[in-house]
Amino acid sequence: MLPFRPARRTAVPAALAAGLVLALTACGGADDAGAAGADTLDPNADLSKQKITVSNWDGYMPEDLPAKFKAAKGPAVTVTKHATNEEIMAKLTAGADSGIDVAFVSGQFAQALAEQGLVEPIHADLVPNLKNLYPEAGQLAYDKGNKFSVPYTWGTTGLCYRTDLTGYTPDSWQDLLSPKPQLAKKVTMMATERWLMLPAQKALGFSANTTDADQLAEVKQKLLEAKKTLLAYDDTTFGDRLKSGEAALVEAWDGWCPTDDPKIKFVVPKEGSDLWVDTMVILKTSKNKEAAHAFINYILDPDNHSWAAENILYKVPNAAAMAKVDAKLLGTHPQLKTAPAELLKGEVPVDLGEAATAYTRIATEVSAG
Amino acid sequence: MSSTLAPRRAARTDPGPHGRRAPRRERLVGRLATLGPGIGYLTVFMLVPLALVLSYTLFHRGRFGGVVHEASTENFTRVADGLYLGVIWTSVKLAGLTTLLALLLGYPTAYLIARLPRSWRTVALVLVVLPFWTNFLIRTYAWIILLNSEGVLNRALTGVGVIDRPLELLYTPGAVVGGLLYAYLPLMVLPLYSAIERLDPQLREASANLGARPARTFWSVTLPLTLPGVLTGCVFVFVPSLGNFVIPELLGGGRTVMVGNLIRDQFLKARDWPFGSTLALTVIALLVLLLMVQAWAARRLAGGNRA
Amino acid sequence: MRRFNWLYIPAGLTYLFLYLPIVVLVIMSFNAADTPYRWDGFDTAWYGRLFADRAVREGLINTLVVATGATALSAVLGTLLAVGLARHTRSKLLDAIAVAPAVLPDIVLAIGLLAFYTAVQFTLGLHSILLAHAVFGTAFVAAVVRTRLAHVDGSLEEASRDLGATAPQTFVRITLPSLAPGIVAGALLAFSLSIDEFVIAFFTAGPQDPTLPIVIYSMVRFGVTPEINALATLLLAVSFTFVIAAQRLSRLTESF
User: Fold this and answer.
1) pLDDT category, B185, cuts 50, 70, 90?
2) C touches which chains (3+ CB pairs under 8 A)?
3) Were both Cys, which of A223, B126, B141, C177 would link to A366 (CB 3.0–4.6 Å)?
4) Over C155-188, what HEC string results?
5) Residues of C in contact with B185 (CB under 8 A)
């Protein structure tokens, strides 16, 4: 799950507040849910007669996008918001028709939905803008070839640090896990499971998707050690902590490292990192799949897709959209320039199935330990 | 109407619930009209939800967070696991410490307030409660500003030269206790105040006249007589401290986990509602035990005073 | 000379402890800097930012809507319940049910209601928070009204009945007016508890309309700071005004 970030220039991500809340289960009444296999879709369907519901993280797409889409293509769009992958997954897997046509979820969750037969294969002919994507965007482990999901944003995780406070150039997860004495209690790590585990997994040379019990035990031990020198677990304010000098070195998503401050730099550790992806999927239960495809196609339009890079500061896997990003922004946020081939060196998180509970347990044990 | 005359006279002396005899049907209607809506409401919006939580403790989580209705005792064996018992124990310790500190600060404060001139008493009491009326989260936030390594306190101390390196104040169990204490201290002072204020000053005087020193008077007269207030205050502070998840999150920096955090995470993050329910049930069981002890102690005190 | 009273030390500590953070918040609300860790001079800009903040404004409106609705509901249910418990039953069980919401840890009620709303497929929104807040509101109104009932002379009601008034007439004309101060006090309590309530709202709110405490929670979590100081100062000023008004009012009524 990727905690999304709100539009860059919004002073207070208070809209997030809404997102931090749990949501209901299904809203719409279900009749017969879709049968297995791909529907045959009509490329010439009258889209203005269709309407769709899109569920997304708050602040993760332009607010005026639904209106612009309706004006340009016809279908009316209702937007609902979810705070976490877990929340939208509960809604989509509850059994009844969730009433949602298009959902934004992280890659490994899209994979889980596909394994359950809950998502519609992407009809590439209805999404001509797929051509805008980098070729690398079709090589993501959770869904090679983008058969049932379309990537929306992608990025990696690394070290974000204050050059004046560290006094040297960190390049390893070890710098975070067992920091030099002057940095003790000046480092933060992320609290969300997959990213809590990532530094230890990579430092030990394990896969970020490991389900091996012995490896996981080692990871846990490493994390418990690291806790002693840690200032706090922090998913949201590490950027501010760096700016204020409370922290000197933090684990951060590339897009969240405030490199517009000249003293702050971002580095991907030499042991490697992850390549997380947030995707769009179409639900099997959707009754307006033509409009749903049109919506995804509209998002992939360079003018629309570049919004995410410019406002959320996450890279988008869309060559045409990245080409449109303001050069000045690329100067202050060099992480946006990471080449797709470079990015692909990171390990893509995949669905862990039942082993996911082991991750949850380790996260609990580490924070309670 | 004359037939109701006699019981009515009785009612004057003892205005109990059934002092007045209305016709049976009318009584039933009265009962339904007054109790029906409220009890009905609490049944639907409290008892049924609680029953639901109780029933979830027997089930387990589906792969994507649903509740699978297959009965098992798995959740209870999990709670009994050292990890979760450890978290519960930590919570009890932190909430207990908070309660103790609240008592140590609150008792003298309440005692002083109760002995102030009447007009000052209100002012002093209002001053205790006033912080309570700004938002709870903002009050917690204030402590982040204060305790931060770059924060006000550390700046002041390093500025004066008392310390040369910022103290590690925030993101410690101590910060969590401080935050809890700050949040619930007024809940200790108020019941203590009302217990102390009710004390008959003549008792103290009598004790002093009999030659008891102030300390002795306090231990053998004042304190025993105000113990019910002490118990109430302790429950008022302990109960919300135990279930709190915001303060450990904000002031503990995710490094201190209390049972409230576990329950919150099971419901909102891991989406393991059955296990979250089981943890909640454990907390309720603890609190019921506590309330029973309190009621028992209060009864004993009342009995002791009469004797 | 009077002996020094050592009780002043812990009492003084209490007040210092209670007010130090608040003083810091108030001072910081006038700080020109965008971080609480540096003083850049006096400025009221954060108040301007606060008033312009749509999320805060909407949160405030949502909070007031919820609190008003929950208070109205609680006042009716709680008053009836208090009368019923005092006059129409001796059941210990019903007594316990009526106090339970006040003693139950908020997180337990919160998860219970979330599970319940989900089970009955109830769409979450302001109404779901309102209904949840009415649960503890009812308990507090009932408790306050009951203490008032204990001091109300039952003979007036009897006289009314003797003079031929029906039970509902007696209730409306005699019982209610004599309970009015208790009802108002209970309602005020329910209102102020609802305004500040976070945990239950956090669990039972829909994603679209957060109450003010939920907005504040996200502000605190995301560490965007000085606006919160301004908000804290304003909330403090409002409650201070309320306290003074209440004091005046009670002095006024006492003098009668």
Assistant:
1) very high
2) A, B
3) A223
4) HHHHHHHHCCCCHHHHHHHHHHHHHHHHHHHHHH
5) 14, 17-18
Q: Do C105 and B243 touch (CB under 8 A)?
A: yes
Beta strands at A102-106 and A157-162: parallel, antiparallel or unpaired: unpaired
Name every chain B residue with its beta carbon within 8 A of the beta carbon of C203: 267-268
Looking at this predicted complex, what is its ipTM? 0.88
Q: Confidence band (pLDDT; 50, 70, 90) for C33?
A: confident
The tens digit of pLDDT for each residue in A324-361 reads 999 999 998 999 999 999 999 999 999 998 888 889 88
- Find the range with the poorest average confidence among A346-350, B55-59, C91-95, C240-244: C240-244
CATH number for the segment(s) B78-306: 1.10.3720.10
Homologous superfamily of domain range A157-274+348-368: Periplasmic binding protein-like II (3.40.190.10)
Residue B4's pLDDT is what?
Answer: 39
Identify the domain containing residue C212 by its residue range.
55-236
Residues of C in contact with A26 (CB under 8 A): 121
Polymer length of chain A: 369
* Contact by Cβ (8 Å): A241, A188: yes
- Contact residues, chain B, for C13 at CB < 8 Å: 105
Q: What percent of chain B has pLDDT over 70?
A: 91
Please name the residue of chain A whose CA is at the shortest distance from the CA of residue B87.
Answer: A368
* Top-confidence residue, C152 or B170: B170
Share of chain A above pLDDT 90, in %: 68
Contacting residues of B for A94, CB less than 8 Å apart? 66
Q: Tell me how many helices (H) and strands (E) chain A has.
A: 15, 10
C225, B144 Cβ separation under 8 angstroms: no
Domain extents for chain A? 42-155+275-338, 157-274+348-368
Residue A14 in this model has a pLDDT that exceeds 60: no
Which token pair is B202?
A: 């003549």
Q: Give partners of B (≥3 CB pairs < 8 A).
A: A, C
B237: chain C residues, CB-CB within 8 Å: none
Across the interface, of A23, A80, A236, the residue whose CB is closest to C222 is A236
H helix intervals, chain C: 8-28, 45-52, 54-87, 92-103, 106-119, 126-151, 155-162, 167-170, 176-196, 199-204, 212-221, 226-254
Q: How far apart are CA C138 and CA B269, in angstroms?
A: 31
For residue A159, which of A259, A227, A239, A253 has the smallest C-alpha distance?
A253
Among B residues 95-124, those touching chain C with beta carbons less than 8 Å apart: 104-109, 111-113, 122
At what angle are helices A213-227 and A356-368 packed, to 10 degrees?
20
**C183 within some domain:** yes
> Is residue C177 a part of any domain in this protein?
yes
Q: CATH homologous superfamily for A42-155+275-338?
A: Periplasmic binding protein-like II (3.40.190.10)
Give the CATH number for residue C223.
1.10.3720.10
**Which chain C residues are closer than 8 Å to A11 by Cβ?**
49, 53, 224, 227
**Most confident stretch, A296-310, B76-90, B182-196:** A296-310
Same fold for the pair A42-155+275-338 and A157-274+348-368: yes
Would you say residue C15 lies in a domain? no
List residues in chain A touching C: CB distance below 8 A.
11-27, 58, 80-83, 236-237, 240-241, 243-246
How many domains, in total, are found in chain C? 1
Say whether A93 and B62 touch across the interface (CB within 8 A).
yes
C1 within some domain: no
| Whole-Å CA distances, A90 to A82, A84, A155, A357 | 11, 10, 25, 16
Q: Is the pLDDT of residue B29 over 90?
A: no
List chain B domain ranges. 78-306
- Chain A residue whose CA is closest to C218: A17
Nearest CA-CA distance, residue C20 and chain A, Å: 22
CB-based contact C207 A58, cutoff 8 Å: yes
In chain A, residues 252-281 whose CB comes closer than 8 Å to chain B: none
